[in-house]
TrEMBL record:
Domain NB-ARC span(s) in chain numbering: 128-286
Any one GO biological process: signal transduction
Name this polypeptide is given: ADP-ribosyl cyclase/cyclic ADP-ribose hydrolase
GO molecular function: ADP binding; NAD+ nucleosidase activity, cyclic ADP-ribose generating
Lineage: Eukaryota, Viridiplantae, Streptophyta, Embryophyta, Tracheophyta
Cleaved signal peptide residues: none
Domain C-JID intervals: 807-926
Domain named TIR: residues: 32-106
Keywords, in A-Z order: Hydrolase, Leucine-rich repeat, NAD, Plant defense, Repeat
Entry annotated with the keyword Repeat: yes
Catalysed reactions, as listed in the record: NAD(+) + H2O = ADP-D-ribose + nicotinamide + H(+)
């Protein structure tokens, strides 16, 4: 972690505050949270030393131990080997999602919902001292989920964290209860890296995760078994004081068994609310059209106050004539009030293709991402986007805020009953199969027929035994268009689909359009297969050794995914699949040969070969491949050659070659990569880059971390926005126009200048400041080093209007014309002599004046320096720059008349401190000259920096020697 600041035992717990605040923790690569939790490594020795120092107050050390264990359990992002820019993007995304979710409120169109919320959550229910478990119980279609959602969005701001776990029954039946536990922890602890292997492990993680210290709002929707509650919210003390757990179910007995005392049973809508809801759907207003009053009353009466029935029937009848309404009412009389039959009226009004899409979603794709399902349905030759729009308009389908499909249980059950009815009750004649046991029954008893159109199953461990199945894809299924076989816990697959004789081949029916089979145990596709309609072939983690022999004609095939197929030795001849757009061969560890016909795939957009450890060479990437945008060769450890391009690649924007054995980038190939925006060369054997790198006119991101042999960089293109050069130990020379940093803009942060930084990181920090303050003059003085080598002092020039702070705060009165187009930001500087080895400084910037949202004062930023240092009684210096964009994003165009800057810190009274603050204008950086530089220099301490040549000078040994001899000679570098 970034610091090891011990909290006092008297520090308030996170849950003690009534004001809910968000906190995002970032764990950097140099301390693993497990080291902190177990207190091993450097922590172990540190505590041994502390115990000796505090023999008379050993409880203090024990308090530190307990606090560190608590800190280790804090959820956050662990940087490890990820790019800083990636983690910052994740943080920004998380904050934006949090802001978006917190801004939700009860929809105005949720008729009657406010009175239901008031009944379930009376005014006397508090938010602090008790833990409430509340149940919402009733038949399907009453609006239980809607009510729970309304409470969730109305009250979530009162809690530290919240989680809405939907479809508990359905997902539990699929063996995904452990994934619900994972979702619960990820959402409440605000992270995305929880791994749970089974429900027993999940229970232990929930109980030990620190949830008991958090005030949370948890909704468990559609529970049907007490075991689900025991595994997700077993006891009150799993959660912090003030928590609410809301459970929806059709079975009241489940709530009673779990000891839920508060049970609310919705009665449906009263006549007035029912009429309003129906009219809003049927007429888009709260009253019926003229001539429809009596008809509307009859429909409302028929729906018996069920919100789902009212919404569905209203959507079905919208825009229809009086005669059509009367015909519908006549139909209602025949079906005698069965809810499924009522809902089927809307289904019967659909066109045939929309019916097929509805049935696919009802049986297979509830809860799946919209874009993923659209891709599958389009592969099946459906007009998916239009069809989904129609279903949404008819209130048969919704899309949630995560982009996932939601369909009411009753609608899904209705769809499955339709399939059962159409088959005459014969399993082998059902158009769709979605349960493992049903599929096995059909195959084992040779019941398959041409009526079967789609098979989509998710199986749990030991559910699907290949040995019992003579032919998984029977030739009798001549009309099969879709097959997806997914293992529920595919990420911890243990090989139970292994077969004794792996020589079997996979027969692919001619009409099949989409085939996806995780861990397929077969050797190859059958030679008798002619899948002329196949669009997508996904055999991740399969035992495929080769895909097919010779040339297989599949002119519609667009996507092949063999990721993780560790037995794959060679790729097939691609000449029979001219429409191929995507090829994923990543983690095919045995792959040694890629057929040269790949160079003729003019439609190919991406080629992924990550972790193909045995691959030594790649066929030529020809100019025919003008659609190629991404080429991934990361971790191909035996590949020592840069890809061979035979022409200009007009679309190739991303090239990843990290952790390969590449030694050289041929200059002749640079001209072929004019569209390249992203180049990853981390951990390669490069000693230098070609001198014509600046011809990469589109390049924005360049990763060179861990290139241990890299000695110099050439001139780089002006388009560069991000460069990383961590641990380039041999790097001696940089061009003057390097504009970037290992940090990602535009996030503001304190940038420390002390001995904690590695030499390379500090050198690149040099250029980060240039990116922030536009243009600066920096000077250094060379001096003889101490035992470990040379040390170079350097200074950062701050604007001449720098105002030194006396004490710990300052207010800057702003002139009337301060806010103009020339103002670029606010700079803060801190210089601290460390008396204590651990310290923290917090800064607060407050804008005072006529602010947006009627604020008279607006806190701009609160940032903190947390540092552990080894050298005491030396000055360490920090710079924070808040850009104009930061200001606008936070304050807007308010009439600010004053900026107040406050510095706070632990043990500030023990330190020698200096602070400075300045408004920064363009002229401040434009007017720097060598003649006035001396009077603009702020007092900074010694900072170890790797001796580096900056600029386009020749690498001259004679000059280097001369520089070393002239210890006190100042050199001025202008960073352009």
């Amino acid at each position: 972690m970034a610091s090891m600041k011990c909290k006092r035992a008297s520090s308030p717990s996170p849950s003690s505050s009534s004001m809910c605040q968000w906190k995002y923790d970032v764990f950097l690569s140099f301390r693993d949270p497990s080291d902190v939790r177990k207190q091993i490594g450097t922590f172990e020795q540190a505590f041994i030393d502390h115990q000796k120092c505090f023999e008379d107050n050993i409880m203090r050390v024990e308090t530190w131990r307990a606090t560190l264990r608590e800190v280790a359990d804090i959820s956050g992002w662990h940087l490890q080997n990820r790019h800083e820019s990636e983690i910052i993007q994740d943080i920004v995304k998380g904050i934006m999602e949090k802001l978006s979710s917190k801004s939700s409120s009860i929809n105005e169109n949720l008729i009657g919902i406010n009175s239901m919320v008031a009944e379930l959550i009376p005014s006397y229910v508090g938010f602090e001292n008790n833990i409430y478990m509340m149940g919402i119980c009733g038949m399907g279609g009453l609006g239980k989920t809607t009510l729970a959602s309304a409470i969730y969005y109305k009250y979530s701001d009162h809690f530290e964290s919240s989680s809405f776990i939907a479809n508990v029954r359905e997902r539990s039946e699929k063996g995904e209860l452990h994934k619900l536990q994972q979702q619960l922890l990820d959402e409440i602890l605000e992270r995305s890296n929880t791994t749970i292997y089974n429900v027993q492990v999940g229970v232990k993680k929930i109980k030990s995760s620190g949830l008991r210290h958090k005030k949370v709002l948890l909704v468990l929707d559609d529970v049907n078994h007490k075991d689900q509650l025991e595994k997700l919210a077993g006891e009150h003390d799993w959660f912090g004081l003030g928590s609410w757990i809301i459970i929806t179910t059709r079975d009241e007995h489940v709530l009673v068994q779990h000891g839920v005392l508060k049970i609310y049973k919705p009665n449906g809508l009263d006549d007035d609310d029912a009429s309003t809801l129906f009219c809003l759907k049927a007429f888009k207003k709260e009253q019926p059209e003229e001539g429809y009053m009596q008809l509307s009353q009859k429909v409302v009466e028929y729906a018996s106050g069920l919100p789902l029935a009212l919404v569905t029937l209203g959507s079905f009848l919208v825009g229809r004539t009086v005669e059509e309404w009367q015909s519908a009412l006549d139909s209602f009389k025949k079906i005698k009030g069965n809810i499924h039959d009522i809902l089927k009226i809307s289904y019967d009004g659909l066109e045939e293709m929309w019916k097929e899409i509805f049935l696919d979603i009802a049986c297979f794709f509830r809860g799946r991402y919209k874009d993923e399902v659209i891709q599958i349905l389009e592969n099946c030759d459906f007009d998916a986007r239009i069809g989904i729009s129609v279903l949404v308009e008819k209130s048969l389908l919704t899309v949630d805020d995560r982009g996932c499909f939601r369909m009411h249980d009753l609608l899904s059950e209705m769809g499955q009953k339709i399939i059962h009815f159409e088959s005459g009750g014969k399993l082998g004649k059902q158009s769709r199969l979605w349960l493992v046991e049903k599929l096995l029954h059909v195959l084992e008893n040779d019941m398959a027929t041409e009526a079967i159109q789609a098979i989509v199953i998710q199986y749990k461990e030991n559910d699907f035994n290949f040995e019992e199945v003579p032919e998984v894809l029977s030739s009798k299924m001549s009309n099969l268009r879709l097959m997806i076989i997914k293992e529920t816990d595919s990420w911890h697959y243990t090989g139970y689909l292994a077969v004794r004789n792996n020589q079997r081949q996979l027969f692919v029916p001619n009409q099949l359009r989409h085939l996806s089979w995780d861990f397929c145990p077969l050797k190859c596709l059958s030679s008798s297969s002619q899948p002329k309609e196949l669009v997508q072939l996904d055999l991740c983690n399969s035992r495929i050794e080769y895909l097919w022999e010779g040339v297989m004609r599949s002119v519609n095939l667009k996507f092949i995914n063999l990721c993780g197929s560790k037995n794959l030795i060679r790729t097939p001849d691609f000449s029979g699949v001219p429409m191929l757009e995507g090829l994923d061969l990543s983690e095919c560890h045995s792959l040694v040969e890629i057929h040269p016909s790949i160079g003729q795939l003019s439609k190919l957009r991406y080629l992924l070969l990550e972790e193909c450890e045995s691959l030594t060479d790649l066929p030529c990437i020809s100019a025919v491949m003008q659609s190629l945008t991404e080429l991934e060769l990361a971790w191909c450890s035996k590949n020592s050659s840069f890809p061979k391009f035979t022409g200009i690649m007009k679309s190739l924007s991303k090239l990843t070659l990290c952790w390969t054995a590449i030694k050289k980038v041929p200059p002749s190939l640079i001209k072929c990569l004019t569209a390249l925006t992203f180049l990853d060369l981390r951990a390669t054997n490069l000693k230098c880059l070609p001198s014509n790198m600046d011809n990469l006119r589109s390049l924005q991101t360049l990763y060179l971390n861990y290139c241990k042999k890299l000695k110099s960089l050439p001139r780089l293109p002006s388009t560069i926005r991000c460069i990383e050069m961590k641990d380039c130990d041999s790097l001696k020379w940089l061009p003057a126009r390097v504009k970037l940093s290992i940090w990602s803009q535009p996030l503001s942060q304190w940038l420390p200048y002390d001995e904690r930084f590695s030499q390379k990181e500090f050198t690149i920090l040099f250029y980060f400041l240039q990116g922030l303050l536009c243009r600066k003059t920096v000077y250094g003085t060379a001096s003889k080093g101490e035992e470990d080598g040379s040390i170079t002092e350097f200074q950062i020039i701050m604007p001449s209007c720098l105002t030194e702070i006396v004490g710990n705060s300052i207010s800057i009165e702003l002139p009337s014309n301060w806010y103009n187009s020339k103002w670029i930001g606010l700079a803060l500087w801190a210089s601290v002599s460390h008396i204590s080895s651990i310290f923290g400084i917090r800064d607060h910037e407050v804008a005072v004046g006529k602010m947006p949202q009627n604020h008279c004062a607006f806190e701009l930023f609160t940032t903190q320096i947390n540092v552990k240092v080894k050298i005491k009684h030396c000055f360490n210096n920090y710079l924070l720059y808040l850009s104009r964009d930061d200001w606008l994003a936070t304050v807007g165009n308010g009439e600010c008349r004053q900026i107040k800057v406050i510095f706070e810190g632990d043990k500030l009274y023990e330190m020698e401190t200096e602070f400075g603050v300045s408004l920064v204008y363009e002229q401040d950086v434009e007017e720097f000259t060598q003649t006035n530089v001396q009077c603009l220099i702020a007092s900074f301490g010694k900072v170890p920096i790797y001796k580096l040549t900056v600029g386009d000078d020749d690498d001259d040994d004679e000059d280097d020697d001369k520089d070393d001899d002239e210890d006190e000679r100042y050199k001025f570098y202008e960073i352009l």
